[in-house]
């Protein structure tokens, strides 16, 4: 059964092909440099993370956790890479990123 292909915009550590490989277990199809207009890149600290994801991160990182998040920001751009991966691999990235861990 073939999986539907999706696009992943990787920014921060996830813009690195080796990071995506570590998450999904193999090289993803690297579509190259990409930008998202109308968004800005922000530093996210532990206190900005909703529970229970904060609790999970705090066990490994303590209070020093720092990550990146993009938020709407008129006139700004976020630079990253575009990868083509399948729907199962998107779920692997979501698990890694603690998506839906509220």
Give a verbal description of the structure.
The chain is an alpha+beta fold and 102 residues long. Helices cover 26% and strands 43% of the residues. It has three helices and three strands. It has helices at residues 17-24, 53-61, 87-96, and strands spanning 5-10, 29-45, 66-86. The protein has a three-stranded antiparallel β-sheet with strand order 1-3-2. The protein is globular.
SSE topology sketch:
Elements: E1 5-10, H1 17-24, E2 29-45, H2 53-61, E3 66-86, H3 87-96
Antiparallel strand pairs: 1-3, 2-3
Major pleated sheet: 3 strands, antiparallel
State the order of secondary-structure elements, H for helix, E for strand: EHEHEH
Which class do the helix and strand fractions yield? alpha+beta
- Unreliable stretches covering 5 or more consecutive residues: none
- Strand % is 35-45%
- How is the largest sheet built, in terms of strand order? 1-3-2
Helix content: 25-40%
| Radius of gyration using CA atoms only | 15 Å
Features:
102 residues, alpha+beta, 3-stranded antiparallel β-sheet, 3 helices, 3 strands, globular
